Amino acid sequence: MTENQSSLSEIFDELNTEFSKTENLVRVVLSGRRRNMQTATDRVDIRPVRIKDELSVQVSFSDGRQMTTKNYAPGEYDFISALKSGFANILLEKLDGSISLRITKKGEPLVHRAQGNFEQDLSHDRSKNRLLDSADAFLKEVGISDASGSVKPSKQDKYRQVEEFLRILSPALTSAIEAGHIDKPSKEKPLTIVDLGCGHAYLTFAAHQYLWAEGIPVRVVGIDVRTSSRDRNNEIARKLNIEKTIEFRAEEISETTLDFADVAIALHACDTATDDAIAWAINCQAKLALIAPCCHHDIQAQMHEAPEPWSILTRNGIMKERLGDLITDALRMQILKLRGYRVEAIEFVGGEHTPRNLMIRAVRTGAPADSIEKKRYEEMLALWKVKPALASLING
Ligand SMILES: C[S@@+](CC[C@H](N)C(=O)[O-])C[C@H]1O[C@@H](n2cnc3c(N)ncnc32)[C@H](O)[C@@H]1O
């Protein structure tokens, strides 16, 4: 193992040379973003594949929700441009070792080289399997699958939502761990997740089952104000024999005594319960937050007077409502940003109680926001004469 402080362009050249030896390559992952740089996708996964006896390079571009895959002839993919495009973490594995590069906030390269034996998987069509087997015992217990392990027709949407949630959670977690924002989970120090407003806990159980199946030690807590949810969910956990690593509590989000989790999720928690959940994440310094807001009333109820010329929208009830939703979520995101989170809005399929399909994905980097961001936030409040509920819930 060697650590080395070569210049960034020398390391890019070294990586590019290794990349060009397709027959030796195992996989490459580009993830995370360099300070003040914007990559076209969240993550790029590259591996050699064999198609009709010819070696190709398969490149998968992921935006955290959808993945697009393209095959290139060896030498065709512009890897050096990808390296320079703004990713902060680059991992290259080859048959006899690996090179990992992390580019710091100051733009300095931290390189780690290790020797080892890596195996190539050249199969072309690695099946786009479901992340969870529909026969998984938990899916039967929560009522998504029937006794034979098939998804019930009435629960297809829920199953799709569970899958989509895992497709968002999994790369977000991997990136946060690779970038050092979340410690690598171990048996002694498992990853901790809280689901705030967990309801029937489809997604809570899904996260637990999926991560254990992936070999990631995890402890999950589901919180919901309803005692009936707590009792039902704890009973399911007992039946599945997982009650040591998943637990449900009947508590108000704003009053829970839980004060730590690496990951906070809140999916379609009603109205300002979403604000309670974001406030919990900020106050308890959750490293990753995945928040899909539900119904919004807070800002809408305060939008008495639209700054002109916005009345051309707000004079229409449905448009005023949608604009109110967007302003609420934009202000929530801006508050997260001002508190040291890197924030994005991505698409997430709606739950059974809401057509809303926006998810806020926030990673705590601790980087201070530029002063212009505070100014923007304050100007937005002044322009619309509103005060977001979330602002009053945050400590300090
Ligand atoms: C629409 S359900 C969503 C359930 C689950 N997250 C899902 O996506 O399937 C919202 C849940 O949030 C719970 N809830 C609402 N406000 C809450 C609060 N202030 N504290 C705790 N739970 C709350 C409700 O009891 C309900 O179970």
UniProtKB/TrEMBL annotation:
Gene3D superfamilies: Vaccinia Virus protein VP39. One of its GO terms (cellular component) is cytoplasm. Transmembrane segments: none annotated. Residues 157-302 form the Methyltransferase domain. InterPro entries: Methyltranfer_dom, SAM-dependent_MTases_sf. PANTHER family: METHYLTRANSFERASE DOMAIN-CONTAINING PROTEIN, PTHR13369. This is Unannotated protein. The lineage of its organism: unclassified sequences, metagenomes, ecological metagenomes.
